[in-house]
Description:
Keywords: DNA-binding. One of its GO terms (molecular function) is DNA binding. By secondary structure, this protein is mainly alpha-helical. It contains eight helices and no strands. Among the domains are: 15-58, Arc Repressor Mutant, subunit A (Orthogonal Bundle), CATH 1.10.10; 78-127, no CATH class. The protein has helices at 15-28, 32-39, 43-58, 78-93, 100-104, 118-127, 141-145, 149-161.
Amino acid sequence: MPRVRKRVTNRGVPLEILEQASNVIRNEGRTVKAVAKDFSICHTTLFRFHKKREKLASEGSDKLPRAGYWTIRRVFSEDQERSLKQYLQRAADLDYGLSPKEVREINRNWNEACMAGVDWFNGFLKRHPTLSIRCPQATSLSRYSHWTGLDLTWQHHFHCYVPFNPSTI
C-alpha cells in the first residue's frame, strides 16, 4: 500500500454547509439524500451530522456537533514535536546525530517494543522536512581536537582574504 495516496473523494465539508442542509431537513421535511444531492455532499455525512444534531437538540443543548475529520491519536502535541525537532537539530549540530531507531525510542511508553512505529517516524519527517536523520558516522578524536575556536576563526579570516572562484580551480 502506498504511503501517499491520491484522494478520490472530497474530504471535509464546512460546518456551515452541514448546518444549512440539516436546517433544510428539519424545516422542510425533505429526505436526507435529496438534500445531500442539492448541497453536493455525501448523504452519509449529512445523515450522521443530522442525527447527532437531533440528539443534542433532544438533550436541550444548542451546540453543534463536531463534523468531519480532525487530528486524533497524536503521539506528541505541537509543542512536544517542536521541542523534539529542536533537540534533534541541536544534537546534529554537536555532531551527535541520532539514528532513526534512537529517534523512535525517545518516548518509551508506546507498546511492548518500547518505540514508535516506522509510520510515525515517516510522518514526523514529512511534517519537519528540514530534519535529516541518518545513521551518524563516527568522528575521530583527532578531528574533534582540531575543531577549536582558534582554528575556526583562522579559517574564517583566511576565506575572507583569499577568494575561491570556480575559475581558480
